[in-house]
């Protein structure tokens, strides 16, 4: 089991929110300028506040520094643009990690499967439509032949 280190949690939170100092992080959390300094002294922080603000991030990584699931790393450049990087790159250990929720992954997989099934179904239906058109042409030819034979029989 990992020991919770408030200073490391604060430092990882600073990375995630792109805060340059404890005061900057305090402001980004909507608290007084001294909030983070007080947290460091007390060795405690309002985890509910962090969880509410950092909803897209891996809390395992935030608390322990260890990611527990396959992930993407999201960085912000000075202009605020997001960049996603493979988390398994060896140089990415100090960056924030973002996860797609399992239901999103399952939804995407289901959507992919549905699209494949729809494509297969459409191909099958098109083939059957062609078969039906061919059968219709054959039926028309048979009806013409039948009509010709009936005319011959009457003569």
Compute the separation of the termini in Å.
101 Å
Mean pLDDT: 78
Q: How many E strands?
A: 3
Count of folded domains: 2
Low-pLDDT residue intervals, each spanning 5 or more residues: 87-100
Residues in helix, %: 55-70%
Strand order of the largest sheet: 2-1-3
- Give the biggest sheet: 3 strands, antiparallel
Tally of separate helices: 6
* Alpha-carbon Rg, integer: 32 Å
Decide which structural class fits the backbone. Answer: mainly alpha
Beta-strand fraction estimate? 5-15%
Q: What's the order of the H and E elements?
A: HHHHHEEEH
Outline: rod-shaped
Give structural notes.
The radius of gyration is 32 Å and the shape is rod-shaped. A hairpin with a 5-residue loop joins strand 1 and strand 2. By secondary structure, the chain is mainly alpha-helical. The protein has a three-stranded antiparallel β-sheet, with no helix packed on it. About 9% of the residues have low confidence. It has six helices and three strands. The chain folds into two domains: 94 residues, no CATH class; 54 residues.
Compact overview of the structure:
The protein is mainly α and about 160 residues long. It contains 6 helices and 3 strands.
Write the layout of secondary structure elements.
Blueprint: H1 6-17, H2 22-28, H3 35-42, H4 47-53, H5 59-64, E1 72-76, E2 82-86, E3 97-98, H6 102-154
Antiparallel strand pairs: 1-2, 1-3
């Amino acid at each position: 089991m990992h020991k919770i280190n408030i200073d490391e949690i604060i430092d990882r939170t600073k990375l995630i929110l792109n805060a340059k100092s404890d005061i900057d992080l305090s402001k980004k959390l909507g608290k007084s300028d001294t909030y983070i300094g007080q947290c460091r002294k007390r060795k405690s922080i309002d985890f509910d506040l962090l969880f509410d603000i950092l909803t897209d991030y891996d809390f395992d990584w935030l608390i322990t520094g260890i990611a527990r699931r396959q992930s993407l790393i999201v960085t912000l450049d000075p202009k605020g643009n997001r960049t996603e990087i493979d988390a398994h790159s060896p140089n990415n250990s100090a960056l924030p990690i973002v996860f797609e929720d399992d239901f999103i992954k399952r939804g995407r997989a289901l959507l992919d499967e549905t699209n494949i099934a729809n494509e297969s179904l459409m191909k099958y239906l098109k083939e059957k439509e062609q078969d039906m058109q061919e059968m219709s042409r054959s039926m028309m030819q048979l009806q013409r032949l039948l009509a010709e034979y009936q005319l011959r029989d009457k003569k």
